[in-house]
Amino acid sequence: MSRTLMRTLLLICTALAAVPAQADRPMSLDQAVSEARERYPGRVLSAETERRNGHDRHRIRILTDDGRVKRLDIDPESGRRMQRPPQR
User: Fold this and answer.
1) Which residues, other chains included, contact 86 with Cβ-Cβ below 8 Å and sequence gap of 6+?
2) pLDDT at 25
3) pLDDT at residue 12 in the model
4) 70: which strand partners?
5) How far apart are CA 24 and CA 66, in angstroms?
6) Global confidence as pTM
């Protein structure tokens, strides 16, 4: 086996070994904002982590390029979008 192929395989194995460790960590607010900006291009108006009923959520507001305000609630544990609580 060539040295180049061995190095490539070693790099792939190293990268794959690191994936589970990252999956166990909660998503940071910065990561949530970055992903939200990729999905909804525009200007971030606000971003904060809020704790409700013992659970954290990242709350992000983006002014999209088409002039709409997009409100997102992201679960830091799963990285998935959460249902927004009803507006009062």
Assistant:
1) none
2) 83
3) 80
4) 62
5) 36
6) 0.66
Whether residue 62 contacts residue 70, with contact meaning beta carbons closer than 8 Å, is answered with yes
The residue count for the chain: 88
Q: Which residue has the tokens 């960590």?
A: 25
- Rounded Cα distance between 37 and 41, Å, is 5
Amino acid at 65: D
C-alpha distance from residue 25 to each of 18, 28, 36, 78, 84 (Å): 12, 9, 19, 9, 23
68 phi/psi in degrees, rounded to 5: -95, 150
Tokens (6 digits) for 18:
């690191």
Cα separations in angstroms, 52 against 7, 27, 62, 86: 48, 17, 22, 14
Compute φ and ψ for 14, nearest 5 degrees.
-65, -45
